[in-house]
C-alpha cells in the first residue's frame, strides 16, 4: 500500500520536504516512533567549601592550572598549606597564607574542568571567603593563537590585563583585543569587577606552546590530560612575574610563610594525580562489567 502524502490533517514535516529519506524526523520504520532524543543534563549548583581560613584583607594571588603549578614549584615549592577549597567534596585548590598575601593554587580536576558553568560559583565563593584587598590571577595563553597586528616576537612575553592602569614591568606586554580570557581566570576577573568594592585586579598570562585538550574531550578521555608533573617554565618568565608582583601591593615570589605545617604544595598535587589515576582505573573497570 502506497503512502499518500496528501492524506494528512496537517502540513508534512519539513524533513519530508527537504530530505530524500522516507523516514520522518524522530520516526522509525513504518512510521513508528524512534528512540527518544537525548535530554540535556540539568545543571546543579556545586557545593563549595573553603576550609581552614578566615577573611583577611590582604592581596590575593591565584595561580591556575599547570602553569600556576609550574610557577610555584619553581619559586616557592615548600609553601605550607593553610587551607583548602572543596568542590562537591573534592579538593580543587590549596591555600597558603603568607606574611604579605594569600596564595591559592587552583588546580581543577578533569571533572570540574568539564563543568564550565561551575566556574563563576567557584570564583565568587573564593572571593567571598577571603575578602581580598586586590586580586592577581596567573594563567597561560597560547602565542600561536594570539592575534596581533605586530609580528610575533622572538621570545614570547608575559602578557597582562588589568582593571585599571598600574605600574608594570618593562618586560610585560598588554593582552589586547580581540584576544580574550576564558576559564577560571575569566571567572575570577569577572567576579572581582562585579564586586561592590571594585576590587583592583590583574591577570598575568605566561606563554605556553603545549596543546590543551578541550574540557569536554578531557572529561571523556581523562588519561589524555594526566601527566607525572607539569611542564617546567623558563626562569626568566618567573622572574618577570616576580618583578611585577613587587609593583603590585607589596607582594613577591617567593614569599616567607607565616607558619610551617605538614601539608605542603606538593601534597595537594600528589593527591590530585592519585585521585585522577584512581578515577581512570574505576572507569576502565566499569567498561567491562
UniProtKB/TrEMBL annotation:
* Chain segments carrying region Disordered: 1-41
Residue ranges annotated as compositionally biased, kind Basic and acidic residues, are 1-18
- List the biased-composition ranges (Acidic residues): 19-28
This protein's name: Proteasome assembly chaperone 1
Which species does this protein come from?
Acaromyces ingoldii
Amino acid at each position: 500500500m502506497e503512502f499518500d502524502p496528501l492524506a494528512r490533517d496537517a502540513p508534512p514535516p519539513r524533513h519530508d520536504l527537504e530530505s530524500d529519506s522516507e523516514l520522518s524526523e524522530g520516526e522509525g520504520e513504518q512510521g513508528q516512533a524512534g528512540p527518544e532524543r537525548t535530554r540535556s543534563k540539568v545543571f546543579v549548583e556545586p557545593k563549595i567549601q573553603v576550609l581552614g581560613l578566615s577573611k583577611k584583607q590582604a592581596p590575593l594571588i591565584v595561580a591556575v592550572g599547570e602553569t600556576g603549578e609550574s610557577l610555584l614549584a619553581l619559586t616557592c615549592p615548600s609553601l605550607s598549606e593553610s587551607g583548602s577549597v572543596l568542590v562537591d567534596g573534592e579538593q580543587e585548590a590549596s591555600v597558603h597564607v603568607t606574611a604579605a598575601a594569600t596564595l591559592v593554587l587552583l588546580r581543577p580536576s578533569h571533572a570540574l574542568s568539564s563543568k564550565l558553568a561551575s566556574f563563576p560559583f567557584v570564583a565568587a565563593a573564593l572571593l567571598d571567603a577571603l575578602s581580598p584587598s586586590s586580586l592577581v590571577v596567573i594563567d597561560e595563553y597560547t602565542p600561536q593563537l594570539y592575534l596581533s597586528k605586530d609580528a610575533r616576537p622572538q621570545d614570547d612575553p608575559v602578557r597582562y590585563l588589568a582593571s585599571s592602569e598600574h605600574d608594570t614591568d618593562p618586560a610585560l606586554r598588554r593582552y589586547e583585543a580581540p584576544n580574550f580570557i576564558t576559564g577560571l581566570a575569566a571567572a575570577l576577573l569577572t567576579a572581582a569587577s562585579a564586586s561592590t568594592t571594585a576590587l583592583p585586579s590583574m591577570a598575568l598570562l605566561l606563554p605556553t606552546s603545549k596543546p590543551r585538550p578541550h574540557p569536554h574531550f578531557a572529561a571523556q578521555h581523562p588519561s589524555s590530560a594526566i601527566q607525572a608533573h607539569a611542564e617546567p617554565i623558563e626562569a626568566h618568565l618567573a622572574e618577570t612575574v616576580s618583578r611585577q608582583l613587587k609593583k603590585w601591593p607589596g607582594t613577591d615570589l617567593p614569599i616567607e610563610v607565616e607558619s610551617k605545617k605538614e601539608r605542603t604544595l606538593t601534597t595537594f598535587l600528589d593527591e590530585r594525580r592519585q585521585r585522577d589515576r584512581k578515577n581512570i582505573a574505576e572507569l576502565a573497570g566499569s567498561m567491562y562489567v
